[in-house]
Each structure stands twice: as structure tokens, then as C-alpha cells.
Amino acid sequence: MNLIEQAKEVKADYKGGAHFKDIAQMILDAFPIIKTNPDKFAKRVGAVLSTDARKKGTKSSFARVKGKKKGSFRKGLYRLKRKPVVKLTPTLPPNITNQYTGKAGETAVIAELLFYGYNASGMAVDDGIDVIASKENKFYHIQVKTANPSETGLFGFSIRKNSFIAKDSSQTFYIFVLRKHDKFRYYNDYLILPSSQIRQLVAVGIINEGAHYSIRIQKDKRGRYILNAKQDVTISVNTFSQIV
User: What is 3-80's CATH topology?
Assistant: First the structure.
């Protein structure tokens, strides 16, 4: 690392101009391996900064600090040029059918399961189970539901009662994919509930019983995920390790 690179590193968090003697001392403090006379080192830093700013011009990482008079510069003061911050915006996806959204959610869940050490694959025929996963000689049946948020940030899901009853077992889990985006990117959160928990939520009336079980998920002002405006399920978000 040469002197310019060292100067850039110590000035990275220092806003405004600084005298080359102060920059030299910052370098000595940050790189104690440098053993030299401080005064001679300061003169060297000043010469290097002056030469770099003069010869490289706009391509230099440093610039002299302007003085009060037009066209003048403050003696020995240099500032680190700040590169403009690149603003990232997510690419808006095209409008697609629920079939594409559903399959994308299933694929995303399979990928996450693989990251967590499950051997997972999609079912060739959807008979109420989308994904089969195994780990340590145990097998799990997973039904995946995927949704984009409404204008109010609500995620809506529906489970057919007959299908739920037919697949209700200790090996069955429901993973609700919450497809979201911020100003930088699109990403998923995953609400993971065993069928036994959904059965309990139906029993106590948090999920209304009918031909379909309606599930609504929304994030409140405190950052909690609330199911059907009643049950806090934050602890079950992104916790793939609970599939045991």
C-alpha cells in the first residue's frame, strides 16, 4: 500500500480538508509499523499529495482546499474527493400469472432448504404437497403458498380445508412466501408453520373455519408479523431450522 492509498484510507471517515501534517500523523497512528521521523514523514506526505493533485488533476483522489479569494487555495490543506453515491432501484418485474408466482415461490423455498442442509425437490404432481425434503433420514411434506403484498402491505393466502385435512400430519409444514421489495431490491421472507399449529389456530378461531382457511399476514409498526390481525407469528419467520 503506497502513501496515496494510506492517505485515502485514513481520510475515508474524515470529512472536509486536513493539513498534510495532520494526514501524516493519521497515517502513522493507523500504521504503527511505519517507523520514521514524523517531521520528515510529514514533508514526504505533503510532497506526494501535492504532486498527485497537480499531475493527475481530476483523476487524483485528492484536491486542494479552496481559499476565500477566487482561484486561491489554502496552503497545505487537502480533501479526499467523494465519489457520488450510486442509487440502486429494483427492476420492476412484468405482470405475471399466479402460476408463475407460485412456481417461483416453490423454487425459492427449495433453494432455502438446500442452504439449510435439507435434500429438497419439487413434486411432479401437486396433490396438496409441493416439496419433499429430507434430513437425517427424516422426510417432510411442504406446501408452499406465495403472495405479493397489497397496497396496504397485506399478504393474503388461502388453503382448501379438504386438502389441509388430507395432508395434516406431524411431517407436514406450510411455508408462506412473502415477496417484498425495498428501494434497492426484491427479497422474500418465509413464514413457516407446521400443520399442527394451523390446526390449533383454527380451533381457537384465529383462522375461521370454512371451505377455505383464509390467512392474512401483515407487518405492524413494531416490525412484528401478525396473522389475521390477532396472532404474532414473528418467531416463525425465516426459521427453517424448526422443520424437524
Answer: Arc Repressor Mutant, subunit A (1.10.10)
